[in-house]
Amino acid sequence: AQSVTQLDSQVPVFEEAPVELRCNYSSSVSVYLFWYVQYPNQGLQLLLKYLSGSTLVESINGFEAEFNKSQTSFHFRKPSVHISDTAEYFCAVWGSGTYKYIFGTGTRLKVLA
Amino acid sequence: NAGVTQTPKFRILKIGQSMTLQCTQDMNHNYMYWYRQDPGMGLKLIYYSVGAGITDKGEVPNGYNVSRSTTEDFPLRLELAAPSQTSVYFCATSGTRLNNQPQHFGDGTRLSIL
Question: For residue range B18-30, what is the model confidence (pLDDT) as tens digits?
Answer without folding.
Answer: 999 999 999 999 8
